[in-house]
Design goal:
The chain is α/β, with parallel strands linked by helices. 52% of the residues lie in helices and 13% in strands.
Length: 308
């Protein structure tokens, strides 16, 4: 029940100021966001890849109000790609991007976002890696999928994200599975109305399994975005039944959550990719992490009390 309240707070300037000013916040944020600059994050990349993990990198920030900010977001990703190029890690380090950062909500936003994200996809391909387009609220998805389809004409490895709690997603999964896309499936972390999304967590879990089966049985590359031990076990069983080898799908989890499980899955031979965010505009990302899982919220509240 607290999830929708937290998501609403993520859009509140007053709550942003209050939480950002709390002395403990920075310490808790560091659990989920290990740095603010490329210089901070490169050692994290080196450490995690040395442990057998893979990464998808997210430069945080979504409240873009000008074309100049969208250009700056593009340039931040290009800087990241330039900095990781000497590491020669190829597809072990990919990028995740939110098209809202590239100007999707601005005037002529669809064209602007496509124009800004294309150079990032091109630069990623030049160093042997790729980009995944993150899903945002349901009103943005038609644009996201259209941009995804356009990018795949030249860069077929470009991935996208689908959200199990949306009613539309089962149809989206059938379409994407048929044409061989890289698809990350997540439960969903935006406040969506009952007219477009399941509200009950058990219904969301059931939809997740149905969609995951479609992806495993299809021609694409499934990326299982979940920290839920039961869903991870189900994913392994569905992969086995579909005859998939360990390198024909992967698990993805957030930096700072279930780190021991990251290492366990990697040690078993699974591809295990850590979603790693960095940057200064962390508030929206951080609030969604709290909303997604009660344990994250309890961790934050305990920290505030213990520091009080």
């Amino acid at each position: 029940m607290l999830g929708p309240v937290i998501l609403a707070a993520s859009r509140s300037d007053r709550m942003r100021r209050l939480i950002s000013a709390a002395p403990v916040t920075k310490q808790v944020v560091d659990r989920f966001i290990p740095g603010e600059t490329v210089g901070d994050i490169v050692p994290i990349i080196e450490d995690l890849t040395a442990k057998g993990l893979e990464l998808t990198m997210d430069v945080v920030g979504e409240d873009i109000t000008t074309p100049e900010q969208a250009t700056a977001a593009r340039d931040a990703y290009l800087q990241l790609i330039e900095q990781i190029k000497p590491l020669e890690l190829g597809e072990r380090v990919e990028m995740s991007v939110k098209l809202s950062m590239f100007g999707q909500a601005l005037e002529n936003g669809h064209e602007l976002a496509l124009a800004n994200v294309r150079p990032v996809v091109e630069a990623a391909a030049a160093i042997g890696t790729t980009v995944t387009l993150d899903a945002e609220d349901h009103t943005t998805l038609d644009s996201m999928f259209a941009i995804h389809e356009e990018l795949r004409k030249d860069f077929p490895q470009t991935g996208c994200v689908i959200q199990a709690y949306l009613f539309r997603t089962e149809a989206d999964a059938r379409r994407l599975a048929a044409n061989g896309s890289r698809v990350r499936i997540v439960k969903g972390a935006y406040k969506e109305p009952a007219s477009v999304a399941y509200q009950d967590r058990h219904e969301i879990d059931k939809a997740y399994v149905r969609i995951l089966k479609t992806l495993m049985d299809g021609e694409g590359y499934p990326m299982i975005g979940s920290h839920d031990p039961r869903l991870i076990s189900i994913a392994q069983e569905l992969a086995r039944k579909a005859g998939r080898k360990l390198d024909e799908y992967e698990f993805q989890m957030l930096y700072g959550i279930r780190g021991e499980e990251h290492l366990r899955l990697a040690a078993e031979g699974h591809r295990m990719r850590v979603y790693t965010a960095y940057g200064t505009d962390w508030y929206g990302y951080f609030m969604r992490r709290l909303a997604e899982k009660p344990a994250n919220l309890r961790f934050f509240l305990r920290s505030m009390v213990s520091k009080g």
